[in-house]
Every structure is written in C-alpha cells, then in structure tokens.
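Our working data are protein records whose layout never changes between entries. Instead of coordinates, the fold is spelled out as a row of discrete tokens. Here is such a record, shown just as it appears in the course material:
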Amino acid sequence: MTERLEGDVPVQSATTAASLVRETATLAVSGFGRVGYPKAVPLALAESGRDLSLTVVSGGSVGEEIDTELLAADAIERRFPYQATPEAREAANRGTVAYQDRHIEAFGDEVRQGHYGAVDVAVVEAVAVGEDWLIPSTSLGHTPACVEAAERLVVEVNEVQPLALQALHDVYVPDPVPHREPVPLTSPGERIGGPRIEFDPAKLSAVVLTDRPDSPYSFREPTREDEAIAVNLATFLSAELERNPTFAESVRLQFGVGSLGNALMGELGRIEFGDRDVAYYGEVVQDGLLDLVDDGSLSAVSATSLALSETGQRRLFERVERYAERVVLRPAEITNGAELVNRLGVVAVNSALEVDLYGHVNSTHVDGTHVMNGIGGSADFFRNSPLSIVTLASTARDGALNRIVPRVGHVDHTEHDVDVVVTDQGVADLRGSAPRERATLLVENCAHPSFQSSLEDYVDRANTAGGHEPHETDR
C-alpha cells in the first residue's frame, strides 16, 4: 500500500478492472477539459479484443485514451455530452457514433435521473482513495454525479498527479431535486465543502494504480485578430464598469477555454478596476489565469478543471499549496449553476463560429451541419449572466469566410441571451435594440469591411420582404 491508499481497498490490474465492464455497459468516466480522466482502464478495454458497444458519458472533454483509442477499437456506440478529438468528431459526423450535445450544468442531474440509461460502471481518476472516499485529480467536472449514479466504481489512483492537489478541491454536492436547498456560496473564493467525494463502500470494485500523465493543452500564439478582439473587449469593459452599477464593487469574469480566452485574459491588465474586487468564476483554469493570480489581479479563481499547458501544469504542480490560497476546484454543477452565475453577477465571455444579423449564435456546427466539439457550458453562463459577450474574429480562412452572416445555419444561443458581440473590427452592444437595429450595429461595428457591402445589400432586400426579423426566403 502507498500513502495514496487507505484501508482495505481492492487493488487490481487495469485488465482485471476492465473485465468488470460488460459489453453493452453504460460507462461513466471522470474528466473535464481533457484532464483528470481515467487512462489505464480505457486502454485495457481498447486492447481487450472484446466486442464492445459502450455508451460513454463524461462531465466534459477527455483525452485520447478514450476518444481516440477506445473509439478506434470500435468500442463506443454512444457518446454524451461532449467530445474534443478529431476522431470523435469525425465519428459523430459520420453517424458511426451516436452523439448528443448537452448543457454542462444539467448533465449531473441527467445522469442521476437516468437520461442515458442506468450507469453500470464509473471509472474515475483520483490522487488518493479509501474504502468510502476518493480525492479527484486535475478535474472535478461531474465526477460526484457519476460516482453517485453508478452501480460499480473503479478508481484509478494516478501517482504522477501530486497528492497536494487535494488542497484545491471543494466538493459540495447539492441535495436531489425536488429537495434541493440554495447553494451556500456567496463569493468565488469561498469554500463550502471538502476535498473528498464520498460513496457507498459496497460500490468500490477495483482500485488501479497508474502513472500516465494528462496530455497538456497546447495553446497557439495569439493572432493579430485575437489581440484586436482583446483590445476591443478591454475598451468596452472599461466603459461598462463606469456606467453599470452592477459592477460598482466587484467584477466576476468567465472566459471560454482556448487560445483566444488566454489572449483576452492577458488584456485584463489594461482595465482600470480601481478598488473593485476582481475574481474569476468559470469552468477551467488556463495559463492566463495563473498569470493574473501571480500578479495580484485576481482575488480568487473558481473552476472545475486545470486545463493548462505543460509549462502551466508544471508551474502549478510545483506550488500547489500557494495557488490553493486563491484557486479552488468545484463540481461542474456548482461552477455552471444558474443560481451561482446569477447571484455572483458573472460576466460571461465565450467564443463562437458565427453570429447572424439579429444576434443568433452558432457555436457548434460548421455550415450548420458538422459538429465541432459541443456547446459546453457557454449557454449556462450566457442565459444567467447580467452581461453576456460573444467574441470571435470577423473572418476565417485567411479572410475568405465571413463570420458575421445573414443567417446562422445552426442556433446554439438565441438573440435573447446575447448582449454584446466583439470582433477584431469593433463592438456591437445589442442591449435595448430591436432586430433591425441589431442588424445595423453588427454590420457597421463587427463585420469585416470586405463583407459589409454585401451584408448591407442583404439587409435592404430582406427589409423589403418585411417581418420582425426580415430575411430573404425561397417562398
């Protein structure tokens, strides 16, 4: 036994643990932001040679061991609610894997309520385990819900993940609906739980010792468009802080994961926050947030996952206890909870594929047909935020593709949930505007000059046809 194991726990090989998963099982796995997911047991399943038709559910994105290797073994029949590898995306678009995109906030309750069938086995990664508890590794996501819902539990104890990660975790599990009480969280840095996920000891079927690290994020350098978007966002937020009483004393920010998000965080230093308390309340800890913690810009960072580059991961691991003074990891149903996003007044900043003239947003489907990764938690924040901001470059494919379009091919966020659009060209504040006014604002402020004329022509033709949101139609 090691210091990571306590009590009489059933230590098994990955191959033995994989044999507990029946051929048509619903398999729940930990993981969010491609970290904190099980590695050894999925690989053992992929290499087993068995005829598997699994339904795989996870709290967020996982790594290649599941969404590449297990998929390549033709072992996954159904996948919910998110995927982030090229292979999983291709399988979803071919229809060889039945995939459904879901909102992150609601997924925990959906698992508990059996929306995806009864969970046969949960396989989760931890840094330590006991007879009736485990301490998660680099993400929390919906691990508590998956553990609770599963008939059997397999825990991978990853010995390359620092045991000190327990200092970051704040596990609070809401009571079941309809007996749910308000979540007693009133500020991003507050702690309301502990480091452990507790479970019925009768569930624990196997403990597997592993040493395979997460695959770190690889963030590209910010593009010229990214930098222009960041400047435009910072300029807008600076003015908003002065006029909006919601932000008179504090500012709570959320950014979507990715290279653009890192660029936006890097520009926060230009904003004059004064004596306001500034904190992050979102889904993932990115490298840019560690920079802001280190320079004292943020009083707290609340998230559910450590989606860091190799450099950022090493940086955090070497000083976990120090970062734990301001960084806290919570279950996704808390980080994305409507109640908390609204109560804390979180400013939601998320990217998109395209935005149409009336403010409808497509975040997930290229050409309206081919899914990318998924909606993730963007709608959780947009719908409940006092200020929802969409950020995107005005063009793609070296300027050949317009991203401010007459009509999006797929709607993830309606105009009712979008307040502001920011591109490299400028800012369109859509609050208090009627549809035809929104069209003018978006064309004039956010569209690339090379597409403005054609968009204006479209608006003129559509207005001739009439309607509250005028469009050219085939009728």
User: Anything to note?
Assistant: Residues 224-243 form the longest helix (20 residues). Residues 269 and 297 are 8 Å apart (CA to CA). The two ends are 73 Å apart (CA to CA). The mean pLDDT is 95.
